[in-house]
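Observation: inputs received (chain + FE2/S2 (inorganic) cluster).
Thought: call the complex predictor directly.
Action: predict_structure
Action Input:
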Amino acid sequence: MYVCLCHSVTDRDIHQAVVNGADTLRELSNQLKVATCCGRCASCARDVLQEAQAMCAKPCNKQSCVKEMQLS
Ligand code: FES
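Observation:
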């Protein structure tokens, strides 16, 4: 689903950013420009960030990472 319409950012983009190390809304904004225009997506982006972080909470190795399988 689209989270940020201004910059065409999806939940998958946010999950991938978390996999790549983003752990704050500011880092998402730096990487994806989410919430840097009208700002209406900030709350939803934060929710998706937290969801992605919860999925990342368990240690995993990259080859069997559930997140990456869902993203591919
Ligand atoms: S919808 Fe994300 S900045 Fe406007």
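Thought: report the result.
Final Answer: The mean pLDDT is 85. The beta strands are 2-4, 9-10.
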